[in-house]
UniProtKB/TrEMBL annotation:
Protein's UniProt keywords contain tRNA-binding: no
Known function: May play the central regulatory role in sporulation. It may be an element of the effector pathway responsible for the activation of sporulation genes in response to nutritional stress. Spo0A may act in concert with spo0H (a sigma factor) to control the expression of some genes that are critical to the sporulation process.
Residue span(s) of domain Response regulatory: 2-116
CDD domains: REC_LytTR_AlgR-like
Residues annotated with 4-aspartylphosphate modification: 53
HTH LytTR-type domain ranges (all copies): 133-238
Species of origin: Clostridium pasteurianum BC1
Gene Ontology molecular function, alphabetical: DNA binding; phosphorelay response regulator activity
Family annotation (Pfam families): LytTR, Response_reg
Alphabetically ordered keywords of this record: Phosphoprotein
SMART domains xref list: LytTR (SM00850), REC (SM00448)
Protein name (Swiss-Prot/TrEMBL): Stage 0 sporulation protein A homolog
Length: 238
């Protein structure tokens, strides 16, 4: 996993380099102070992550990010700035994170961990051990048995993963997360839900020939959408 840093303040750039080198496995392949030079570089070079200041010479960071959002293969964008007012605009163009200066060490470390986990999961490396998976809770990586997952629910740009007693988050869409799970165990029963088939206790007929699912040790009922009923019935031999 590689990155470039786009930052025209020397001390801020050196501090960020320190964090990246000491608290991640991300390789720094370029440093830039000018927005135009960044766009020229990206025409011929593939980058996984861009740490991007907003107030730089040439072209400001938000404009650069809008250009990058049109790429067929988009790098992750982490804004690094002293200004809060661009945060909404940053997330409208699906920035990975928005880090304020002066840097907070705990915040930086947490962002780097999430960045690496998201990258690895999208490269098909989420299952670090055959039947285990890395999930997030309170900025900690929790190694979890896949068997312990009861269901997953889409939460905006993240996926909430629920076990018997805990809930965790993965910074991936529910479609991306579903691709990492074993299909013999998990089923995408609804556009917003994935269910662990081994945890189903009751199948309840519902409106429009659909079903609701009651799971062992879970109070919430999980819907099966009409578009997924046929496949679900085949899987469950109904």
């Amino acid at each position: 996993m590689n990155c470039i840093i786009v930052e025209d303040e020397f001390l801020a750039r050196e501090e960020l380099k320190y964090f990246i080198k000491n608290f991640s496995n991300i390789e720094i392949t370029g440093e830039f102070e000018d927005g135009i030079e960044v766009l020229k570089f990206l025409q011929n070079n593939k980058v996984d992550v861009i740490f991007l200041d907003i107030n730089i010479s040439g072209i400001d960071g938000v404009v650069i990010a809008k250009n990058i959002s049109k790429f067929s293969e988009k790098p992750y964008i982490v804004f690094i700035t002293a200004y809060k007012e661009h945060a909404v605009e940053a997330f409208e163009i699906e920035a990975f994170d928005y880090i304020l200066k002066p840097y907070d060490e705990t915040r930086i470390k947490s962002m780097l961990k999430k960045l690496e986990l998201t990258y690895n999961s999208q490269k098909g490396e989420l299952h670090t051990i055959s039947n285990r998976i890395n999930l997030f809770k309170n900025d900690k990586i929790i190694v979890t048995n896949i068997d312990d997952i009861y269901y997953c629910e889409a939460k905006e740009r993240e996926t909430c993963v629920l076990t018997k007693t805990e809930e965790y988050f993965v910074k991936m869409s529910i479609s991306e997360f579903y691709d990492t799970l074993p299909k013999e165990m998990f089923f995408r029963c609804h556009r917003s839900y994935i269910v662990n088939l081994t945890k189903i206790k009751e199948i309840i007929p519902w409106f429009n020939n659909t079903y609701n699912l009651r799971l062992k040790n879970v109070t919430e009922e999980i819907p099966v959408s009409r578009s997924n009923v046929k496949k679900f019935k085949q899987i469950m031999n109904i």
